[in-house]
Design goal:
With 405 residues, the chain is α+β, with helices and mostly antiparallel strands. It contains eleven helices and 23 strands. The protein binds coenzyme A (COA). The site of coenzyme A (COA) has 19 residues, from helix 1, strand 6 and helix 3. It comes from Candidatus Aeolococcus gillhamiae.
């Protein structure tokens, strides 16, 4: 059988790429096509005997690590393989190209959201953060505190929203696991949400300002008005809620929870450390189901381990095994705490041994070394090292990817 060839596309071919990838998913080209290909940085097609059989693309998404520093991340997206050519290695060839491209361009980490959580571990990706789907009936959404907003809310026309979203997102430095979106990327979201989808209204944007008039949060949502026997039964589909402080956070939640004609609020990307969980009077009424979210593939261990901060001051030697990338494999000493960290390759004896995917899982502090050890994914070489690694790498609040790409 012929070999699969990976073809890197020039930006002028990105429109062709987007149409081809849509074909692989069996979907009609959608709204926002133009914005989609403007948001892509790199795109590739897998070719077999002259036929395009696979597609994958990369978007630049700076990623926030524990402690607030940001590192460049290749966000892998638009992955698809023709239904007629599956299980012939097209995905493997594209994942290999993505990894080598990141390594050659000094990008320390790749990230993606998986359509199925079973696919990517074999390529060295570990589940690094989790997210919730949340639903609450507004009749049971009272807060157990009385909250009076010292600031104010205002509606923002969609065509004015991009600079506002980007400004607030860039100031949210403590959002571990969050990404920064380009203006083009934000416009993809607008284009997709501008058109009414059945009975769901286009996206509404509400911004919050503090008492001094400084913007400190926004909520994006779509309203679905419904009626049953003459009674209102509306739903607010909350797409995103980003706030820089608790007042803004509560004011924005209160806005959606107290809206007239709305009986239910649903959020597909709910932060698992959202303070709302502690503040609703009847927390069981806030139904949250969790799933894996951001999968990370470490490429430059030294860059990543020295960029993040650690909850406990300590020093560890970590041996990383990596069948897919010999450049990643090796032993690393990391020494750090809340104020900074140093990481370097070492010949010293390992305290813990793990594979690249396990390190990806530990990077944002959402999955502990102890949990991985219990599953025999992390091995302890020095007594007590796993407990120390768990304390060192843990982080609060929990990571939260603000947008799935
Ligand atoms: C998922 C998809 C991209 C896989 O592409 P593919 O070219 O068939 O994959 P490959 O032949 O390169 O397989 C590589 C490995 O992944 C495994 N794999 C592929 N698809 C898988 C799936 N859906 N679930 C679990 N494992 C999967 C293969 O068994 C193979 O494993 P191995 O090499 O360890 O034995 C393709 O089936 C597809 O386009 N599906 C629909 C769209 C989609 O889900 N895209 C992913 C978006 S994140």
């Amino acid at each position: 059988m012929s070999a699969i060839e990976i073809v890197d596309l020039a930006p002028s071919d990105f429109e062709h790429f987007v149409l081809t990838a849509h074909g692989f998913w069996g979907e009609a080209p959608e709204i926002g096509m133009e914005q989609v290909h403007h948001a892509l940085r790199r795109a590739m097609l897998a070719r077999l005997d002259g036929e395009d059989i696979g597609a994958a693309a990369v978007i630049d998404f700076p990623l926030t690590l524990p402690g607030g520093s940001r590192v460049a991340m290749d966000g892998v997206t638009w992955v698809g393989v023709a239904a007629t050519a599956r299980r012939r290695g097209a995905l493997r060839a594209m994942m290999d190209r993505c990894l080598r491209s990141a390594r050659d361009r000094d990008i320390p980490v790749l990230g993606l959201g998986a359509s199925e959580s079973s696919i990517y571990r074999r390529f060295g990706y570990g589940v690094a953060s989790h997210i919730g789907s949340a639903a609450i009936d507004t009749a049971h959404a009272a807060l157990r505190i009385s909250f009076h907003d010292p600031g104010r809310l205002r509606f923002v026309p969609l065509h004015d929203a991009v600079p506002l979203w980007r400004d607030i997102e860039s100031r949210q430095v403590d959002r571990t696991g969050g990404i920064l979106r380009s203006a083009d990327h934000w416009r993809v979201g607008i284009a997709r949400n501008e058109t009414p989808d059945g009975k769901i209204a286009p996206m509404t944007v509400v911004a919050h300002e503090d008492a001094a008039g400084v913007l400190d949060g926004f909520a994006n949502y779509r309203v679905e008005l419904r009626w049953a026997d003459g009674l209102s039964d509306g739903i607010v589909h909350l797409t995103e809620l980003t706030a820089l402080n608790l007042d803004a956070h509560l004011a924005l939640w209160q806005h959606v929870l107290e809206m007239d004609l709305i009986e239910h609020v649903e959020m597909w990307r709910f932060w698992l450390d959202d303070p709302l969980q502690q503040l609703v009077a009847d927390p069981r009424r806030l139904r949250v189901s969790t799933r894996d979210d951001l999968h990370l593939r470490v490429v430059d261990v030294v860059a990543l381990l020295s960029a993040r901060r650690y909850s406990r001051e300590d020093s560890l030697v970590i041996e990383v095994r990596d069948d897919a990338c010999a450049d990643v494999a090796g032993r690393y000493r990391v020494e750090g705490g809340l104020d900074g960290a140093i990481a370097a390759r070492t010949n010293a004896t390992a305290d813990v041994v793990l594979d690249a995917a396990a390190l990806g899982s530990m990077l944002l502090g959402d999955v502990s070394a102890a949990a991985l050890q219990r599953a025999d994914i992390v091995q302890e070489e020095r007594e007590g090292a796993v407990r120390r690694a768990s304390a060192m790498f843990s982080w609060s609040p929990r990571p939260w990817l603000n947008h799935m790409f």
